[in-house]
Amino acid sequence: MKKLITVTICFLTILCARLAHTEFQYGGYYNNFFTTIDSPLSDTSMMGVVVNRLRLNLSYAATESLSFAIAYDFSPRIQDPLLFTESPIAVGIASSRYRVADFDSLLYPDDDEQVGSVGIYHNLDRASVQISTDYADISIGRDAIAWGSARIINPTDVVAPFNYDQLDTEDRVGVDAVRVRIPIGVLGEIDTGYIFGTDFDFNKSAIYLRTQFNTLETDYSFGLIEYQNDLLFGLDIARGIGGTGFWCEMSYVLTELFDDIDSKDNYIRTSVGLDYSFGGETYTFVEYHYNGAGTGKPDNYLDNLNHSAYTRGGVYLLGVHYLAPGLTHQLTPLTSISGQMLFNLTDLSTWIAPQFAYNIAEDIHLSVGGFISIGKSLENDDPTQFQSEFGSYPNLFFTSFRVYF
Which residue, of 8, 203, 260, 292, is most buried by count of CB atoms within 10 Å of its CB? Predict the structure, then answer.
């Protein structure tokens, strides 16, 4: 079955290429991540992971108002067999809960074969029809949906959010949806849609309505999202204050609203921040995040993972209060250094992410970086006994090589 799907995708790709003319466009990229993982457990040796990803993007404009898009990822990996089922990092092809049906992402080895150190993954990440009219833009099929103006943690982005340690953030994972966007004025918009879950199950799906408008040089966005029986009210404000950018993104989630249960798990999440650019060469920002679904006691971190925020709401941080500063400096036209920090203000642990980037050529990029964890380590070397959040995470170092075409 897997071979048949692969052959079919290759056939469709070749067929589209033969139809190429001015309305047909193709592109994509190849990237490679070599990652070293240093576990916080003293009896665990360092592990290496090599992830390759080849992505092909195809689009075809049949008319001015009708177009088609498709994107396919092919990803061979070399890594410790344990990482195929219990990966501690977010790298490679991510999965989505919001797909009606999908083929098995693992092409090799087969289910009945023993897992070794080599795996081959694939992902049909885009497959959509775009319809443009004088009154609305309509998208049907598999596409990316993301919201929020915050730089590090987006409280309103619950469909397919990135984690802080996501290495490959080139493309948001695609979801199956029907989406309608209606322009209002010059900068306003009404955005509504239905995001399908497995087998069109309503209890695994999401429906949303968002409005966006600009007044008094300020962008406002209000959202209402029902997902898997939780209801999210979202607010997003962004504007400039002098030469400084400001944003405030927040959400309030009512859990199990339609299950006739008096839930006490309702929660608020908020991200507030400022950014500033010094002469176009140095960019800085700082963001505060409040995670109402978290807990201030490290002893309760793992127990709290049963909260619906973690099982359905895309939340991954375990604490309550966070500070996230960041800086990027252009050393030369081809090189830059950057650094970010995610600081748990309660248990005083820190996740530092330095990176050096070099543009070898216009479409060839090389970077080196890591995610360094600082804080109290696991008590008695027990993975269930947290003394701090980030002190219990592995250190991670990587190189990234990207070629665009």
Answer: 292
